[in-house]
Amino acid sequence: MFRLDGTDIITPKNAFGALPVQRRTVDEAVKILRRALQGGMTYFDTARSYTDSEEKIGIAFEGVDRKSYYLATKTPSTTREGILSDLETSLKNLKTDYIDVYQLHNAQQCYAPGDGTGVYETMQELKAQGKIRYISITCHKIDVAFKAVESGLYATLQFPLSYLSGEKEIELVKKCKERGVGFIAMKGLAGGLINNARAAYGYLDQFDNVLPIWGVQHMHELEEWLSFMDNPPTLDEELVSLIIKDRESMQGAFCRSCGYCMPCPKGIIINQCARMVLMLGRAPTKKWLSDEWQKEMAKINDCINCGRCKSRCPYGLDVPNLLKQNLEGYNRILQEETNKK
Ligand code: SF4
Ligand code: SF4
Description:
The protein has 2 domains: 2-234, TIM Barrel (Alpha-Beta Barrel); 270-340, no CATH class. The protein has 15 helices and 10 strands. It has helices at residues 26-38, 53-60, 80-94, 119-128, 142-151, 167-179, 197-205, 219-230, 237-249, 270-273, 276-282, 285-288, 291-298, 308-312, 319-340, and strands at residues 2-3, 10-11, 15-17, 43-45, 70-75, 99-104, 132-138, 156-160, 182-186, 210-215. The strands form 2 sheets. The chain has an 8-stranded parallel beta barrel with strand order 3-4-5-6-7-8-9-10, surrounded by 5 helices. A two-stranded antiparallel ribbon has the order 1-2. Strand 3, helix 1 and strand 4 form a beta-alpha-beta unit. It starts with a strand and ends with a helix. Residues 255-261, 270-271, 274, 312-313, 315, 317, 319 line the site of one iron/sulfur cluster.
């Protein structure tokens, strides 16, 4: 068992990310969520922005002892009214009267008392009322993350971390430890670029202050994460060499698929198209070379260089250029596949 710094939460170092259950029917999602709880997971992370994810959790755990699991959700709002209204909706959806970890979602700044926004004061008010137990934050910008940790205002930070992360992220993990701030790792599979769960788990398991949340869409994925409860993968020679190989092939400016650059006025599915060549190298090519995806990739030709995506990308990527490079690579691979036939 593991205690999440900044909190009294004691849970297996193996948490459930409920973003993907949006894509399942209510019945399917409920089965997955109940199996996760029965299999030993006790920390469930969702968000107001994940459409019906909260409602599915509420249905799945109705009648279950509320003390036997922890709920973490998020508000994307930056106004007092918005936060209050989001929290009430979350409580109703999750069929509970308190949230354990309430997070400002994808915060663009480190909100603090007296900054004029009223955001932090609203969170304090909710905590004083007992509606939330911990004030927390999630973000994708490393400078905001460092500020939040150093501010001492947040119990936990949720930030992307995987074996493709860089030195700065490792420094952030250490900083959290020094400051007693819980580190919750999202995107342990780097948005689908990492396809070896054992390596992903083994890597994050090295950090004794990191709680990874694994996005679960399918029962077979869940069973693999649950199998690690009793037999956690350790970084043996085989996994280390796989990690080194992956790092070499994906170093530098790659799209994490977070989607914060969207929507695009030209309808380009940026969070897939900007990493298409990487995906083609890692997943079965057939799906990505379908007529449907050829049409989606061709939309890159319609890019008007408005710069919106570039200014919104938390990783500072030159998105329009990355899209063009991916289109070139995609067309090359498509041609090669056609020649093979
Ligand atoms: S620069 Fe191109 S890809 Fe980016 S948002 Fe504008 S039109 Fe879309
Ligand atoms: S281009 Fe940047 S913002 Fe858009 S999905 Fe990729 S990493 Fe996220």
